[in-house]
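forwarding from the other thread:

> can someone predict this with glycyl-adenosine-5'-phosphate?

sure thing
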Amino acid sequence: MERLVNLCKRRGFIFPSAEIYGGFRSTYDYGPLGMLMLRNVKDAWFRSMVQLRDDVVAIDAAILSHPKIWEASGHLATFTDPLVDCRNCKERWRADEIEGVCPKCGSTDLTDARPFNLMFKTYVGPVAEEASVAYLRPETAQGMFVNFMNVLQTTRRKPPFGVAQVGKSFRNEITPGNFVFRTREFEQMELEYFVPPDQGAKWFEYWCDERLRWYRDLGIPESLLRLRPHDPEELSHYSSMTSDVEFAFPWGWGELEGIANRTDFDLTAHAKMSGQRIEYFDQATGERYVPHVIEPAAGATRTMMSFLLAAYDEDQVAGEARTVLRLDRRLAPYKAAVLPLSKNERLSPVAREVLALLQPHLMCEYDETQSIGRRYRRHDEIGTPYCVTVDFESLDDRAVTIRERDSTEQVRIPIGKLVEELRGRLAL
Ligand code: GAP
């Protein structure tokens, strides 16, 4: 874990936010490589959940949200964690995480637990009064519920169908930590899949299988993944059944995604609160019902961290130790690095020509400083699947060397065939 955090900082994946001011309360900024990788995680999710299906559409709802949404959804009343204070050192803890002893000073002199609401409250407009209260959304899901009728009417869908959304959510976590595992600002990737009421169980099973498959397909080994059904007392206020996809983090199993059967809880609650009809009506059959909802809800930032952990490796190449991120090609920040053998005025024009050839097809980096060995190591360490090297022979034979990250195998390819070769290897 420590080595990964170090690599993330050193190579530009993830920086502590406002570091020049000493950091800011477990918030993080995604650097040049991290923003590329996070985008790839979200794109991989979107491709699988929206693009490759004909039964899912996506929306992008506001983060700043109407208080009625959270009143209806139950978040105002019940989206809380039990908070205790240590009377000795004044530290605050989540009661369910500490078993009656302060982890900082060891004191057992703790206050009784009281519910602490996790939503960030703010005021819209110039006056901070009750009438102008708004909340930063703690989940993207409600955007899909309050827009259910809008989506239904504009897309003419019939259950089963889904509405997906990727975006930021905010929770005033009492104990953020473990790097980006738990932060107060994070990104979610959620699908609300609306089904006829009698099909909930079937689609719950379907989405559990489907979601596990997604993580495996992107390179997380079977041994680091499991599906864990919730005990009844653990269920969220809206759920009749939940299973978590869990990952074996260095500190133990932790949730990557919750798959819940939210029944008709949310649509019914919003219909009641708003006084509007929220239901599906089949004009052909006259059938009318409130759909049930199966929700696979994943965290983009947390998932990115698990992909990094699963990909991190150290091995030996020609007797020399190296660190390598064995990231799936779809997740790697750069797909290829273009490297002139050395910084040389005869090599640069050809290398730049190769870069221009590749750029329209894939995210590349051009790098001509330091020895070629060090540049290979750097790209191994940031997970670049291919290095394309331009050497002095290239000037005569118009060919370049492709070096593969995991095997370090090298092959020579004519520049004219390079795009086709890399597109094939990267399955673009
Ligand atoms: N709409 C349902 C929902 O939000 P959740 O289990 O609370 O369910 C879904 O959140 C996912 O969002 C989690 O599995 C996790 O990956 C991510 N997540 C939740 N809270 C987070 C936090 N504080 N920091 C990072 N990721 C978080």
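The first helix runs from residue 2 to 11. thats all i got for now
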